[in-house]
Amino acid sequence: MKKEEKKQIWLQIKGENIQVEKKKIKNLYLRISPADGAIRISAPERMPGKTIEAFVIEKWDWILAAREKLDRRRRETDAGRQLTEEERKAQKEAYKRQLLEALPQVIQKCERVTGLHALEWKLRDMKTRWGSCNIQKKRIWLNIQLAAYPRECLEYVVTHELVHLLVPGHGKEFQAYMDRFFPDWKRVRKELNGR
Questions:
Q1: Which of 41, 60, 114, 117 has its CA 20 to 30 A from that of 1?
Q2: Is the pTM of this model over 0.70?
Q3: Per-residue pLDDT averaged across 1-23, rounded?
Q4: Which of 171, 143, 169, 145 is nearest to 158 (CA)?
């Protein structure tokens, strides 16, 4: 069996040197190196540099948010301490404000895509889940910690909870709706859950 051929090129985008690996694949993939925050791209062999550049520019906000998350984790680890109660309170308030600002647009977009509508949206700090849905009351709760992640993660969770208005569990029917309404949901879920 022939070994997969790879070709590396470098692109400079927004003043950054970005490593691009050309492979026999169909789609573009973007990763941020946890070690140094470097941008790594895997691209189809024949894809022009301009297309790759446009993709990176389109994802720039996500890149900055992912790096900020890495920096924050590093700072917390380096500090080797937990946030004080006061700092935690201030952080929660900041997260709430950020979500309240972003949510109306995200909800409108996701409801338009799915054709589904919740009667009530609430925010709270949750330890083990990103969102929850009370199907009978059509009430959706969102975790304020979502403010620390790229916007697409918020869109994923909002879509996920809206789909629960149709399907209570996470079986094949639920996944089929997610595939239809948010085709990239599995990748975003991995990003959100850190794996």
A1: 41
A2: no
A3: 77
A4: 143
